[in-house]
Amino acid sequence: MQRRFVFVAALMALVISLLEMSSFALLSLVNGHWTGWGDLQHRRGDLANGSPTDYGGVEALRTVGREQPPWLSSFALHPFLGFVWEPSRNSEATDAVRKAVELGFDVSAAAFFEKSSDDRLVIAVFGGSVANRFVMSAAEELRTLLAAVPNLSDKEIVIGSAAIPGYKQPQQLMAMNFLLANGAHFDVVINIDGFNEVALAPSEQVTKGIWHFYPRDWYYRVADLSAQERRILGHLTHLRGKRAELARKFSGPLLRLSLTGGLLWHLLDARLDRQSAGLELELLESETTAEDYQTRGPSLTPDSEESLYRELAEVWWRSSMLMNRLSSENGMRYFHFIQPNQYVEGSKPLSAEERRRAFRGRHPYRRGVVLGYPELLAQAQQSRTTKIAFHDLTGLFEGLRETLYVDSCCHFNHKGNRLLAEAVAAVMREE
Length: 431
Known about the structure:
Rossmann fold; single chain; alpha/beta; 5-stranded parallel β-sheet
């Protein structure tokens, strides 16, 4: 009896081992790299806490009046800038931190309101979510690289974010003016943008009849939504909840240690993710009900797709020129970078994981990049005489086969942000 028990136990252990090895192989094949417990738990942890791990959809749920989903309620309407971060109160914060946060910016922007000194170099980074993540992920790398420059070695280098996810010109220009008007000081301005300017408005605003230079998701922030839109938002909220619940369930003491369980979770979560992406596309294509000026904005829609992208590029570049002029008049240096993106043809050989997670052939942003980036670069090329320190980084990842993009929108992992920091530092050293 005992020998039989030992035999059955050994057989079960062998079967479980084979299952785990097979699951490990399948997960690694699907993801394009060796995938273990840590990788799975990291992704599950984000989802379990209600933070989406990718931005495959439109993020149009950021704020929906007073009905915003709880995981996307981090923005507040702003009379000058469209929207800013919702301030979080802290009675123990310094005066500089309190001012930065109360004005609607990141805590790191406190550096702009601290006492200026010849021994400090204050760098302000403007842009959207890519620029904001760049500060969060690679500020230390940029600081270290700049500290190696001979005439900066004796200075304290401070980097703050004036970038807010979803910002597109002229919001960066407006934010710079707003900060300076409220007493901010910085020595260097870094503007990292381009993607939001051509990808967001054509797919999220023009299709709904909203003026393309209004802030992102303006319709969802102020409009009285239709029954169809409320239905879609409700379904999306439900799916987000299911993904979080599923992630928590597979993060339990036993399942989190099983690669077979990880494979099952991966397949179930991918199915929910595809459903969410379909609903987000449906939300984009749903008809609008608002006719008021506050919601729709000026009736100045270009008469063709070609003229739309040309106008987007013109305002983008004009805003950059004004930021450069504002910098010069205030004794600051201005650097403008157009960000890399996976939808720029030939800009990077995608890894297996990037092809799975970071590229969608029918993604609504893809067309904006394909048609808009050439207009941006043409506008910059025609305006070389303005002497703006502009640099095209669309080829930054060219020839790199490792995974750098983390979602089907535009964002990079830490390695990608580190490469961006190296490129920015190299330009600043030369200048």
